[in-house]
Every structure is written in C-alpha cells, then in structure tokens.
Amino acid sequence: MGATPKTIGIIGAGIIGVTLARALQRRGLQVTLFDERDPGRAASFGNAGYIATEAIFPLAHGSILRSLPRMLFNPLSPLTMRWQEFPRLLSWYLKYVSACSNRRAADSIQALATIQGKAGIAWEALRSCEGLHNLVVANGAIMLYESDRGFNETRIRRDAQRHYGIDWQVLSGDEARRMIPELSSHIKHAVTYPAGMHVVNPYSITTNIFDRFVSDGGEFTKERIAVLEPTDTAVKTTSEAKAMRQFHAVAVSAGHLSGRLLKLLGYKVPIIAERGYHLETSYQKTSLNMPVGAYERGFHITPMSSGLRLAGTVEFSSADHDEEPNWDRAEILKTHIDEIAPGLAGAETSRWMGHRPTLPDFLPVLGRAPRHKNLFLAFGHHHLGLTLAPITATIMSELVAGARPSIDLEAFSLRRFNR
Ligand SMILES: Cc1cc2nc3c(=O)[nH]c(=O)nc-3n(C[C@H](O)[C@H](O)[C@H](O)COP(=O)(O)OP(=O)(O)OC[C@H]3O[C@@H](n4cnc5c(N)ncnc54)[C@H](O)[C@@H]3O)c2cc1C
User: Fold this and answer.
1) 317 CA to middle of ligand 1, Å?
2) What structural domains does the chain harbor?
3) Tens of pLDDT along 138-163?
4) Interval between CA 357 and ligand 1 midpoint (Å)
5) Whose CA is nearest to atom 4 of ligand 1?
6) Half-sphere exposure of 73 (CA within 13 A, CB side)
7) pLDDT in tens, 96-129
8) Cβ atoms of 285 and 20 closer than 8 Å
9) DSSP E strands: which ranges in 50-161?
10) Do residues 172 and 189 make contact, with C-beta atoms less than 8 angstroms apart?
11) Which residues line ligand 1 (CB under 6 A)?
12) 98, 363, 379, 411: which has the highest count of C-beta atoms within 10 A?
C-alpha cells in the first residue's frame, strides 16, 4: 500500500495501455499516453475479437510440447517458426520447455483461471460504463473438432474448466450443424461456451475508449519512448526525439516491445513476438453470430462488422528482429474455412499480420517492477490481450492507486524471470 501518484505516463496505446489509461483517469489521475503509432494499430488491431474467458490452459503445457517438434518446421502448421530464427529463440524455448513441466503448468493454469474468473465481469462492467453495447456481443462461442483424437485429448481442459466453474456443453457433429448449417459433414464434435463474448471490431474498441479518454482531458503524445529513469519519487521518460517528461509513476504496456525499455534498467524480459495472421472475407450474414474455433487448425472464425475474420495461427519470432509477413499463413486460413464450412466465406477483403507479446510461461507480466516502486508493468498478454484488458486495467489501477489488487499478483510478477 502507498500514496497514489498524481501523474502517470503510460508507454503503449494498444488495448492494454488504453484501458489502463481510462481506468486510471477514472480514479482521478492525470494520465499521459505515449505511442509511436496511432492508438490501437499494433496487435490490438487485427485480433480474432474473441473474449475467451474459458481459456485457462496456457500454451505452455506438456500436451502441446509433445506435438511441438512435428509442427515447428512445417511452415503451414498451426504453430511454426522460421528455422533461421532458431538461434535467437533458443533461450526462450529452453524457458518454455521448463514452463511445460507438470508442476509449473499446474501453477500457470491456477494463475490464469484466477484472472480469467474475473475477466468476463470486468468486460461487462467496461461495456456498460463506456457504452460499448454495439461493439461487444454476448452470444456465446463454439469450438469444433474434426477428429475423435482432438476431442479426446482436450477432455483434460474441459475437466479443468468445469473445476473452475466454466460452463460448457458438448454437441455432436449433427447438433453443431443444426446451429451452423454451413458446417461440413466431417465435423465430429463441438463444445459450446455460453459465456463467450466477442467484439465486432477490435480496432474500434480501442479507439472508442481512447476517444473518451482524450475528451475527458487525457493526453496523448505520439512519440517512441527510448529511455526510462526511475528514482524514489518519480520516473523520467526520454523520447527518441530527446523530449523529456517527468511523472510520479510510469506504466509499461508496450506489447512485444516492452522488454527493450526494461532491459536498459537491468531486467531480464524473455518476451518474443508470436506472429499471427488474419484474413477477412465478405460473407452472407447467415446464422453465424458467434466466434467459431477450429481446434485442429488453430484459428478462429469471427463475424465482424467489416466481414468474416479468420484469425490465428502461431509463428514464433524474435521481438527484436522482424521479417516480412509470410502471407501463405494467412491464405491457408481461407483453405481451412472452405474445408470446415464450405460456402460460408466469400472473397478476401483484407489481410493482416500482428505480434502477440509472449513470455515462455504464457502468463502476462502484471505488477510493480521488482526494483523500482514507481514503475508499473502490464504486458505479455499473448493470445489473450483483448480478453484480459479490462481486468488488467482494474487490477493495475488498484495497484497504482495504492489499494490491494483484487487478485494476488505474485504469479504474474517479473520477479519470476529475475531471481
Ligand atoms: C492473429 C491474432 C489473433 C488474436 N486473437 C485474440 C482474441 O481473439 N482474443 C484475445 O483476447 N486476444 C487475441 N489476440 C491477442 C491480442 O491481440 C494481444 O494480446 C493484444 O492486442 C496485446 O495488446 P497490447 O496493448 O499489449 O499490445 P499492442 O496492441 O501491440 O500495443 C502496444 C503498443 O505499444 C507501442 N509501443 C511499443 N514500444 C513503444 C515505445 N518504446 N514507445 C511508445 N510506444 C511504444 C506500440 O506502437 C503499440 O501500439 C490475438 C492476436 C493475434 C496476433
């Protein structure tokens, strides 16, 4: 517990930085948001829009580790990497393997389930207090399984979900086809999640909240912050153009680039850019009114205001070294949907690649910087940044305001990589 800072700078205006800025503004702080780009233009722009509160199984898990070697070197599998990247990613992989041990994966499930347990309520609160009713839809969600193997190997996840009070219902292929008539006859099983929500335009979510922040007096500065200098009472920021500012506190929510600023302060931040793609198509507005996951193919189909968005797949990449997108990975999504639900998707209207900010244990970093009490950290939300943004803003604003956060943040501390 401590005194509330009066001024705070937030580095990064993605969904995490913007929702945090708004939450702190509501608590009466004077907030300045920094971003080198316009708000919401990075990973938060093109995601699948799925508020996936049932996702309590981090990707760091023994079952995924076992299938990793088979997938990694296949450039069109749901999860891959470019082999040239291997040396740069080696130390991350070693930490990932260690995070997949049974004990550590169980701890991660517990941590993720705890935060996810409050994520849906936080979204409902944000939706009503910011008037986002047209953008956030609560129609549930469905996961499809094309094989008995896929369905059976995920029973352990459903058992864990039940244990944590997450509601689901198993459907046969025929029952799923009655819900979504376009589904192919080879879909064998499905699971519905009645509490699932989705947003119909992820970019508009960020910009809507941002516009409210600015119209209520929040400041936005379009600059890249190059250096942070925390002292006992303040944090100085220096932009790439050498402009200096000073705040009582600073929060880092710079997505996959968060590590750069913290490494200069001596912190180890094993963060990578987990590249993902979307392809958007036209579609006839049919019975599809919820996100549809395709388990074996690792992507989601979400009806959006702009079209049908096919989004997902994983391409491990270094955070510091980016290459051109591999558009084959976006194009394969169209092949996938034509096989899963023939005729549902029309012609391609846009394509996109973005960087998920991902740590080896697939948990975000949330809390105070271990050695700097005026420096707050909220990054590394990997596949769940949209889902976890409102609860992150709630918890972090409690912490910044000197209150006890509504969940224990020890499992999310940067200390876990800096012992
Ligand atoms: C294909 C795909 C599908 C996804 N689907 C979903 C989904 O359905 N549901 C879900 O919950 N999540 C999903 N995600 C994950 C989600 O999009 C991310 O976790 C989330 O957008 C991360 O938000 P962020 O604010 O941390 O990062 P970003 O949106 O990347 O924002 C970080 C910002 O920081 C800025 N920045 C960085 N460094 C500096 C600096 N030094 N100075 C100033 N500014 C800086 C950047 O310019 C950027 O604007 C998906 C991701 C992908 C790629």
Assistant:
1) 15
2) 7-417 (3.50.50.60)
3) 999 999 999 999 999 999 999 999 99
4) 7
5) 47
6) 5
7) 999 999 899 999 999 999 999 999 999 999 999 9
8) no
9) 50-51, 79-81, 136-137, 141-145
10) yes
11) 11-17, 34-37, 41-44, 47-50, 52, 224-225, 253-255, 257, 261, 276-278, 300, 311-312, 354, 356-357, 379, 381-387
12) 379
Closest atom of ligand 1 to 387 CA is 11
Residue partners of 318: CB distance under 8 A and separation at least 6? 85, 88, 89, 272, 273
In tens, the pLDDT along 297-355 reads 999 999 999 999 999 999 999 998 888 999 999 999 999 999 999 999 999 999 999 99
Residue nearest to atom 21 of ligand 1 (CA): 44
Contact 361, 380 (CB under 8 A): no
Distance CA 101, CA 249 (A): 37
Task: Please list, in sequence order, all residues whose beta carbon lies within 8 angstroms of the beta carbon of residue 313, skipping any fewer than 6 positions away.
Answer: 78, 79, 80, 276, 277, 298, 299, 329, 332, 333
Ligand 1 centroid–CA 207 distance in Å is 14
Residue nearest to atom 26 of ligand 1 (CA): 255
Q: Are 395 and 366 in contact (CB under 8 A)?
A: yes
Spatial separation of the C-alpha atoms in residues 315 and 82, rounded to whole Å: 8
DSSP H or E segment with residue 114: helix 102-130
**Residue 16, φ and ψ in degrees, nearest 5:** -70, -50
Ligand 1: atom nearest CA of 37 is: 47
Going 211 to 217 to 223 to 225, the CA torsion angle's sign is negative
Give me the phi and psi of 338, to 5 degrees please.
-65, -25
Q: Which residue puts its alpha carbon closest to atom 15 of ligand 1?
A: 383
Residue 79 forms beta bridges with which residues? Answer: 314
From residue 208, alpha-carbon distances to 109, 179, 202, 293 in Å are 32, 32, 10, 27
Mutate to test the pocket of ligand 1, among 142, 333, 381 (most ligand atoms within 8 A of CB): 381
Distance in Å, CA 381 to ligand 1 centroid: 8
For the four alpha carbons of 263, 269, 270 and 274, in that order, the dihedral sign comes to negative
149 φ, ψ to 5°? -60, -50
Tokens 């769940």 -> residue: 384
* Ligand 1 atom at minimum distance from 354 CA: 53
